[in-house]
Write the structure tokens for this entry.
Amino acid sequence: MAAPTFFEALKKSFTDVPIDTSKDNAITTTDFLEATESLCGLFDIMGSVAFTPVKNDMLGNVKKLRDRQLASPAESSILQSLVVNELKTKKHTAAEGLLWLTRQRIAMADSSSPNQGSPLDETVPRTMYQQEVEYLTVPFSGLDFTAQGLRHNLSNPSEELSVSFRHAYGNTLKPHHSFMIKPIFAAAMSATPYRKDFYAKLDNDPVQGKREMEKWLSALEERVTILKDFLGTKVAKW
């Protein structure tokens, strides 16, 4: 029996994540987190283990948000409210999770090392331990990186996935990566499947798969934009 396609296996689509425009574009927490978890299946069909850190980072940030939701369910049904109410307690674990999920994370230097400074500063020598820590905590802009790569590919019908994701990488992650990390991601981009194979894994009918991808991707982009705008407001600062 053939493995299910991405859209067959998709448990929750971003098209099914409600936006309440009457309440400042409120996004339901459970639906958004489930859709984000479902998105991670996309990295599996990419077929490259180099995408594993991105996937794991996204799932880790989903857990931070869900932990807060479970701890305070009455005030966490809406994603934006979850963040605002957590910040009122002088904590920001879940808020950081949402920030990192939709934007980027920059790792801090290992405080025990004599070579202080940002691990992304290529002028500062790093120990092998620091280099390993840096690999595990490089900034991931999971949703934005994924959305930009797929959008570029859909907008350029003759372009291979590797080219599209290199473009997305340059816009989201590359400016923040050190010379140690860039080759790793360069290899990941090269390991993406051929365009025809990728779209065949989305749906048994590649044409229909592209239509479904367009709807799913547009919904993802809309929700990421709303959350980025929210995270830029005063009430979401800490």
Notes: The CA atoms of residues 86 and 92 lie 6 Å apart. Strands lie at 19-20, 26-27. The longest strand covers residues 19-20.
